[in-house]
Amino acid sequence: MDCFSYRNGELYAEETRVRDIAESAGTPCYIYSRATLEEHYDRLQAAFKPIDPLICYSVKSCSNLGVLRVLAARGAGMDAVSGGELYRAKLAGVPMSKCVYAGVGKSDDEITGAIQDGLGLFNCESEEEFENIASIAKKLRATVRVALRINPDVDPQTHRYTATGKKETKFGVDLERARRFFATYGRDPHATLEGLHLHIGSPIYTVDPYREAMTKTVDLVAALASDGMAIRSIDLGGGFGADYESAQSPPLQEYAAAILPLAKPLYDRGVRFILEPGRTIAGNAGILVLRVLYTKTSGEKRFVICDAGMNALLRPSHYGSFHFIWPVEPGSAMTPARRTLDPKLPGTTTHDVVGPLCESGDFLALDRVLPASIKRGDLLAVFTAGAYGMSMASRYNSSPLPAEVLVSRDHAEIVRRREDFQTLVEHELKPIALQLAPSATTELPR
Ligand code: LLP
Known about the structure:
Blueprint: E1 4-7, E2 10-13, E3 16-17, H1 18-25, E4 29-33, H2 34-47, E5 54-58, H3 65-73, E6 77-80, H4 83-91, E7 99-101, H5 108-116, E8 121-124, H6 127-139, E9 144-151, E10 173-174, H7 175-185, E11 191-197, H8 208-226, E12 233-235, H9 252-268, E13 272-275, H10 279-282, E14 286-298, E15 301-306, H11 315-319, E16 325-327, E17 348-354, E18 363-371, E19 379-382, E20 403-408, E21 411-416, H12 421-425, H13 440-443
Parallel strand pairs: 4-20, 5-6, 5-13, 6-7, 7-8, 8-9, 9-10, 9-11, 11-12, 12-13, 15-17
Antiparallel strand pairs: 1-2, 2-3, 4-14, 14-15, 14-19, 16-19, 17-18, 20-21
This protein binds ligand LLP.
């Protein structure tokens, strides 16, 4: 579901004309819909109500402060994977006690900062990391709460770059080691090991991997109980789908139906549940709007060359992902009924939609059915770009990052200014001499 719709042949974000936003904010720009963010958050909460989870929105999916504030106002906690993301959560007004912090490579500074800020829960990924968290907590005379990230060896049937819950992965520890982990660290006085965390991959379009992962988790909880270790929280991670094509993702109730029968008995015994959704909240809540700079034909191929490509949205070139692309003002006769590879409208032909960068990998769509009438100056909307769009954007080829706009009904505000050339170079303008320790060579006697 989302609040981007065509009316009389023109695209609207909620009650606001996308063309008007693009003309005022410039292109490329990301546009987010507040109502869509809120609706997805509410639907998740309703679907999982029987276990009343703390919904920790995954900051990495779309980390704009404007978006975080919308969700914070709904009561969301945040799932962070870096000090930078925790900083954003804090600025957005999210209580640190509602934040969880995962990631295989937390630095000492990041751990220290998180403890000083009163982080809710560390999602710990390895033995060495646990020892480091415990020793930093001890130094700070603090006690922190820790969950162990486990990988339940489940195939999430998704792109191999984003499958994270298989046995041989850099994330978490496997189930056999998990028991030993609790035996070794379960009684640390400064790092209270009290929870389990899993995130098996993203996006996951069938519910079976969740059922399988949850079954293994329930077994582990029982095994740990027999070892005298009580589990107080289970964080099920994220990974629920988004609709890149119309109605592609199972409704959230279907995911819940697979998970709840296994989770509810634990909830009834006092286990607290956490979810870390990113894409399912933010994916459909954002579009990327581009301007067509040129069209051209090379051999048999027609190209639509836009003012941004993989620098603004990396997913198609990095994962081969599908994003529906359509003109912002196609006219009533060319309004698509469904977002799909070929919306079956007259007067269409295939195009490669590419960006301006100096790589053949700089594309947003290959052999894509689009109106044959597309011309220089048209605006194109790339749908379902809210998650892992701007958050993975780069300045490659010295391209300033796009603007971000948040729409609430007929109100639109810039929540991130477009970068300019000055922004590109501001950290480089003045070289600063490093104060280096004297090197061995300079200490050699003459
Ligand atoms: N929790 C953890 C520990 C994660 O690593 C992730 C995503 C999430 C939650 C949120 O997953 P979501 O609900 O958004 O699926 N760049 C890729 C996706 C990478 C996901 C990384 N981890 C993409 O564009 O598809």
